[in-house]
Amino acid sequence: MKLLVVGASYRTAPVATLEQLAVGPADLTRTLGRLIAQPYVAEAVLVSTCNRVEVYAAVSGFHGGLGDICAILAEQAGCQPAALAPHLYVHYDAAAVDHVFRVAAGLDSMVVGEAQILGQLRDAYHCAGSADSAGRLLHELMQQALRVGKRAHAETNIDRAGQSVVTAALDLAADMLDGDLAGRPAMVVGAGAMGSLGVATLSRMGAGPLTVTNRGAARAQRLAESYGADAVPMAELVDALADVDVVIAATAATDPVLTHDVVTRALARRDADRGPLVLLDLAVPRDVEPGVGELPGVEVIDIDRMAAVLADGPAAADAAEVARIVTGEVQAFLSWLRGADVAPTVAALRGRAEDVVSAELRRLGQRRPDLSDDQRAEVARTVHRVVQRLLHQPTVRVRQLAAEPGGDQYAALLRELFDLDVPQTSPVDTVPDVVTTDLDGRPSFDAADLPPTGGVR
């Protein structure tokens, strides 16, 4: 099996496309099941956040795996694979490991270095575990990716440059409100992970009074109590909007919550001399209906706007140090992979030796029926010891050599020399030139490069 990453992010797709691709928590297990039901996909982890939708997969062939995953993503987006292709990137084998580790370290985030992605990756991994869609390869990949992310934050100052998307968005909001949110009434719509982060960040910045609303009132109440905020029913959203200056919208709703009608009615009840109403839409699909930002007295900060503002990234030294850590970890993981690939060949060689020994002992028993049970047992132990000692050094050495670049040739040589029948777990098709080996976020293949899939399945 080989690793394949197929996805879209804020770098390659507009919010509208990410909205179409987004997989809600209620649909994750079903989508994972559809992925591993495809002919070429053996394992799958699905990451769906406000900034990215990515599939990490163990596949038995590049072209087949790409076609299978693209078909599922296109079905999710409600379009043909060829229409989705310009927004997708593909990373294969070593480049896939590099990409996943960079994501975990925060190097591929909108706000480089932000730590929230670690929690999102952990949630995606746990979901795949619960759905039984992650096997040995993806278990190892995800565990190592989470460790790499923790190491990046522990050993560098990337946190200094990598504030959360919420913090960065609120900094933009502060610039629109005389540079300070202290004492500004604010509201958070949604009580999930992003909503909780929003309340915590607003509280730390001194904004207040704070209000929380959510479709599930009990959850909103618990979150509000944790920060000394007020919880209001979603039915009172219009009145609550009229009394605040900043709103963080981060729900899991499939339709906009802050509609044109809701915001218009809130503005009608708002004091005429108040400053702008700043709406931070950090949800995918969007919580703020398109066109709301054109209303007088309303400013909307959404994912598209965040991407444009944060394009320059953090301090180069911090990011470069994290990139160095990632590079070393990628090489270590690839060495492990190469070592793991030779294991079936070593097992087959030892199995062949055991078969030869067993056959010869049976033949000895037939030729020398006069041998006692103790004599037979001693002969068997002696022969087994001789064979094990003969095989020990070569098998240890081939594992060492296999961990080095180009090490797969040693396993192939063993199979050829001893005529070993080892099931092939790696794809034999050639990886096309369109597969990206860099990580600049650009689409890595054209629609014409997609293999035939027989339409959306």
Structural class label? alpha/beta
Beta-strand content estimate:
5-15%
- The helix/strand order is EHHEEHHEHHHHHEHEHEHEHEEHHHH
Question: What distance lies between the first and last C-alpha atoms, to the nearest angstrom?
Answer: 23 Å
Number of helices: 17
Shape: elongated
What would your notes on this structure say?
- There is one protein chain.
- This protein is an alpha/beta fold.
- 52% of the residues lie in helices and 11% in strands.
- The strands form 2 sheets. A 6-stranded parallel beta sheet has the order 7-6-5-8-9-10.
- α15 packs parallel to α17.
- It is elongated and about 110 Å long.
Structure described in brief:
This protein has helices at about 15-20, 25-35, 60-75, 80-85, 95-105, 115-130, 135-155, 160, 165-175, 195-205, 215-225, 235-240, 260-270, 305-310, 315-365, 375-400, 410-420, and strands at about 1-10, 40-50, 50-60, 90, 185-190, 210-215, 230, 245-250, 275-280, 300. The protein has about 450 residues and is an alpha/beta fold.
